[in-house]
Design brief:
Elements lengths: L1 H6 L6 H28 L2 H22 L13 H9 L2 H10 L7 H30 L6 H21 L1
Helix pairs in contact: 2-4, 2-5, 2-6, 3-7
């Protein structure tokens, strides 16, 4: 989200915020309905899933590394890319497994609270990225590379968790 804020300085954050919320909800629902039972039944699918997510994160990092910030930045990081990257973010699985209970009488309240937090945090990251993009000036081109390095770090963490 910070990178989206930095490279999409002329756009409003709402579509990006909703894209992030949609990405998280999609992976949480998919994990609860399909992935958790599948991983319980066939443990190797967890390893395969981690491998696919790591590969995507590397792809996204390469794409982000090549992003150039200029006066014509519209569409450099799209809401669709935010949604897909959020969907493939390992944090979504952590939320599905540990934060949101599998069964609870107040499950709708957990999802509502989760939605509010995701929207607030995503707005914060978007605005932080926008602020950094403005203050970075001639060094603004480094911002996508910082985001790219973070994605490579997450991919590396997944690879280590597979090997270990």
């Amino acid at each position: 989200m910070a990178t989206a804020g930095a490279v999409n300085r002329g756009e409003r954050p709402w579509l990006f915020m909703l894209a992030e919320l949609g990405g998280y909800f999609a992976i949480v629902v998919l994990a609860r309905i399909v992935l958790l039972p599948l991983i319980d039944a066939y443990p190797w699918t967890g390893t395969a899933l981690k491998s696919l997510v790591a590969a995507y994160l590397i792809y996204a990092a390469i794409r982000l590394w090549r992003t150039r910030i200029s006066t014509e930045v519209r569409g450099r990081v799209s809401p669709q890319l935010v949604a897909l990257t959020t969907f493939l973010n390992p944090k979504g699985l952590i939320f599905a497994i540990t934060i949101i209970p599998r069964a609870h009488p107040m499950l709708p309240a957990f999802f509502a609270g989760f939605a509010v937090l995701v929207l607030l945090v995503s707005l914060g990251w978007f605005m932080a990225g926008r602020t950094l993009g403005v203050f970075a000036g001639s060094r603004a081109g480094l911002l996508p590379r910082v985001g790219s390095a973070a994605l490579v770090g997450f991919a590396g963490y997944l690879v280590v968790s597979i090997v270990a």
